[in-house]
Amino acid sequence: DYALYHGKRHRRGTVNIFTVDHDTQIQRDAAVEIALRKADLERELVVVFQPIVDIASDRTVAFEALARWKSVALGDVPPTQFIPIAERSGLIGRLTVILLGKALAAARHWPDTIRLSFNLSAHDLCSPQIVLQIIQMLNDAPIETSRIDLEITETALLHDMEQVQEAIRMLKLLGCSVSLDDFGTGYSSLSHLHALPFTKIKIDRSFVQGMDSKPASYKIVKSLLALTRDMGIDCVVEGVETVEEMSLLRELGGKMVQGYYFSRPMEEKDIAGFLADRARPEPMLRSG
Ligand code: C2E
Ligand code: MG
Ligand code: MG
Ligand code: MG
């Protein structure tokens, strides 16, 4: 029977493909976990920095620290791959401490008008031991804690809301700001905004990309900007790439933006040059 034959073949093929992909993924994840455990992470982890720009003044107001892993065993591994694996395998706290140390060491050389944004994992906030270590590092930090923003991705705000809430409270008492990252991608964005004392949200780049062609995206960004204005909290729009997106955001009264339009994440050594270039009055010298 032709249909049955093809149905079967198709089904078997699908199962095979799924199995291969699934196994490959598991093997790949296992290799990453083993490499993470064996690596000299103090050496192999690097922090790069992406500017956050204030629209009204056209000034760089902060840099977000972003992790890069130059693995001796595996080559360059992106954070979208190794951070979730570090979280699942209980290694994230160690990574966070190393990365925070490097980010703070870089920020000590910046003008004091420039803030540091640093990504914390919600898993970090569920471990009292890691929270204590983070608090100690922030307390001894070479820059004022009032210049530090801690970003927490909302998709990672899982079950232990009470512990996360308590940790956020302590970090704010230290003088840090706490931001809700990738806003709109989680399951209950608005209830997070309601339940946790965030000082800022970062609108996920999926809403920004296509806001000039998709009316729904445009309206979501517009509403979120209005919402944060009404609530009196800060807002950064992530993933701005084009001049069209930039002018729409200006029109809508956006406050801060981050994206390839201004710069990709850069190495620490390039920051001084970037700031000097942007401080020059000639608009032709500006990126974008
Ligand atoms: P995130 O915190 O939302 O960081 C923004 C991501 O968007 C970065 O990706 C950045 O390079 C990228 N990006 C910025 N502007 C644009 C743009 O205009 N277009 C596009 N296509 N992308 C843009 P990256 O560096 O690959 O980091 C991915 C995610 O990994 C971060 O998302 C964050 O959730 C996590 N991550 C990175 N570094 C750390 C870290 O040190 N600790 C923790 N816990 N998570 C980190
Ligand atoms: Mg972030
Ligand atoms: Mg984000
Ligand atoms: Mg993200």
From TrEMBL:
- Superkingdom, taxonomy of origin: Bacteria
Give residue ranges for domain EAL.
Answer: 29-279
Protein name per Swiss-Prot or TrEMBL = Diguanylate cyclase (GGDEF)-like protein
Q: According to the record, which residues of the full protein are present here?
A: 352 to 639 of 639
